[in-house]
Design goal:
Length: 179
Amino acid sequence: MEMIAERGLEKLTMAALGREVQMSSGHLLYYFGSKDELLLRTLEWSESRLGAERGRLLARDAPARERLDAYVALYVPDGRHDPHWTLWLEVWNRSLTAAEDARDRQGAIEGAWHRDLAALVVEGVSRGEFRPVDADRFATRLRALLDGFSLQVAVGLRGTGRERVLGLVGEFLDESLTP
């Protein structure tokens, strides 16, 4: 992740990574089998850290909307070339030709985000903080919105900075969930 943050994926070769960790590219290939597997495992590692942070944010004793805003803030990239989102973009791109197992592993990561969001929406509805909605359907729609905006932030499209996106998503949440 440090190399991706500093140099971007285009300069992340097995040879360069090997030099960075003082290991030959052959050793890296022995342990990971391919660059695709190395990237996916790096994503899984990064997501496990984000998942723990997401769990802490969602477990707080706070109104559901406050925790939903924290979820959204964690989801949206910090800006252009956010290393986590750069990695996601590369793994998604490689999934076109990836083995079924790799796509299943990506799906497991996506599923954790979805389940946490849907559970939060259910909780907010049950407490009367949100208007009644189908939590699973709402989570699917919100994550699609977040993915679309996040891609724009991650690649640096003009007019789609992080703060603007957070504001637009906040408006969507107000319109969709306010009782």
